[in-house]
Design a protein that fits this description.
The protein is 74% helix and 0% strand. With 130 residues, the protein is mainly alpha-helical. The chain has one domain. The mean pLDDT is 80.
Length: 130
């Protein structure tokens, strides 16, 4: 599911801006539904177990949420400032923002593929998945 969500983010970034710029309320609603509901909220709901599963019980409930929330400031907190700067530098064109979104989703996809599989890992032990 995580890979599917990231692929939607990769493929849908540029078309979302094109659909939004049509001014058609139904197409804008489609962009909001797919972009926010499926991609953003789906990704957020997939992150919590994905971050916790590879780690043993000794750090799963304290360290993982702390790291996730601290780095969310860098990943999501400064993204609006970066996108605003891109819009101002490129005279209101959405293409630099779409490329930024695609690059961020691509980096996330590469990192996701590097996370260890936890299917056969005993979650009750203190050992991290390998």
């Amino acid at each position: 599911m995580d890979i599917a969500i990231l692929l939607v983010l990769l493929v849908f970034s540029a078309p979302a801006f094109l659909l939004r710029n049509t001014g058609d309320a139904w197409l804008i609603a489609l962009v909001c539904a797919v972009g926010f509901v499926f991609a953003v909220e789906g990704w957020i709901s997939a992150l919590s177990p994905m971050f916790a599963e590879p780690f043993g019980s000794r750090c799963r409930f304290a360290s993982v949420p702390l790291a996730r929330e601290c780095f969310a400031v860098f990943g999501g907190g400064i993204a609006p400032m970066i996108c605003s700067e891109l819009l101002s530098q490129f005279t209101g064109s959405f293409w630099p923002v779409a490329v930024y979104m695609i690059v961020m989703a691509g980096i996330s996809l590469v990192q996701l593929l590097g996370i260890p599989e936890t299917r056969d890992h005993d979650q009750l032990t203190g050992q991290d998945a390998r």
